[in-house]
Amino acid sequence: MLVLGFMSGTSLDGVDAALIETDGRRVDAFAPACLSPFEDAERNLIQHATAEALKWNGYGAPPASLCAAEAAVHEAHLRAAREVVAAAGRLPDLVGFHGQTVLHRPERKLTVQIGDAQALSDALGVPVVAGMRLDDLAAGGQGAPLVPAYHAALAEKLSLELPVAFLNLGGVANLTFIGAERELIAFDTGPANGLIDQIVQARGAGRFDEGGRLAAAGVVDEDVLAQLLSHDHFRGTGPRSLDRYDFPLDWADAFSLENAVATLTAFTADSVALAARSLPQAPGTWVVCGGGCHNPVLMEALSERLGNCRKADDLGLRSDFVEAEAMAFLAARSAQGLPLTYPGTTGVPAPLTGGTLYHPALIGV
Ligand SMILES: Nc1ncnc2c1ncn2[C@@H]1O[C@H](COP(=O)(O)OP(=O)(O)OP(=O)(O)O)[C@@H](O)[C@H]1O
Ligand SMILES: CC(=O)N[C@H]1[C@@H]2OC[C@@H](O2)[C@@H](O)[C@@H]1O[C@H](C)C(=O)O
After folding, report:
1. Which of 156, 233, 296, 356 has the most beta carbons within 10 angstroms of its beta carbon?
2. Which residues surround ligand 1 with Cβ inside 6 Å?
3. Which residues are noted in the entry as ATP-binding (predicted)?
4. CATH of segment(s) 2-142+339-358
5. Atom of ligand 2 nearest to the CA of 113
6. For the CA of 50, the nearest ligand
7. Among all ligands shown, which has an atom nearest to the Cα of 150?
8. For 159-315, which CATH superfamily applies?
């Protein structure tokens, strides 16, 4: 099957769309992929809705701004779909749709991804699987991370020596450990680029720390770093997940941009190192994907702490599209009732399938 996966992550750069050939068990081939950036007006609507969703926090009526943001999310997905479908020269057989996370409160079984799966299915004329976090949360899981099943399929496709770890550096960082017996351990390790992006944008210095230049020019504040690492999240063990806005940034007002970014970059690397210490064995290789793998200062800091870190692209993967590909893979699994999540990945009591299948409305009926 040719399956299209969409991911619009917490960094709000845009919609990733990636096609893969898969039967939901193996990854047979990679097909065209693209990033369709949000237009400024779309990003503003989504940023506003995210801020309102944080204030709402799941109590009472959801903010009206979610509707306008949902329309923007839909438009951006259609643009991305048109681009990859044109590149592939055909429609996919199935779509995996994540939606835009605006709030994640797993302890209250609440996660909110905006987007209209039925409208997407109607517009594309293709069945769409969405809501892939919901059954997991309802069954007592964290609802995240979802990508471990796909990381495991990639490890198999590349015949990677086990144990191996995959590390995704998006707004939030998440890791998947694949043990010698193919057992999975996964969780969100802490922030990746989210806080760095936030301060760079607040100071009017662009959207992110391009090439890690700010971090390279700054000095790490060890006291702030120690304080950041004392957050409750790092006391936990086992499956756990984060909202992109779970960590404070108010302390940074007293710092130069360079020193704040250097400290946040060390925070990301140290929180991954803490996560690594909780693993049953040291992975022989860390396969690093997500936007943070393009930051050489962060990659260097990770290599110092973890050992063998390889950019996913160097292994023949597409570091910027692993999450979108994962949504495609999971949609193919969902359509067959195969598990999406496992006790070791989200804390769900038993392997569990999930997702809802939306069929396109018949034209003219
Ligand atoms: N050349 C680069 N130099 C430094 N940082 C970069 C570079 N390219 C991307 N990034 C970082 O990666 C981020 C985007 O990463 P990515 O697209 O993986 O996140 P996401 O998928 O939106 O988030 P999440 O995985 O948490 O949902 C950017 O916001 C930026 O911080
Ligand atoms: C609630 C939510 O959207 N979480 C994201 C976020 O971004 C990275 C990390 O935190 C991960 O847990 C998850 O995304 C990926 C796709 C996942 O579920 O595996």
Report:
1. 233
2. 9-11, 13, 168, 170-172, 193, 196-197, 208-212, 290-292, 294-295, 323
3. 9-16
4. 3.30.420.40
5. 3
6. 2
7. 2
8. ATPase, nucleotide binding domain (3.30.420.40)
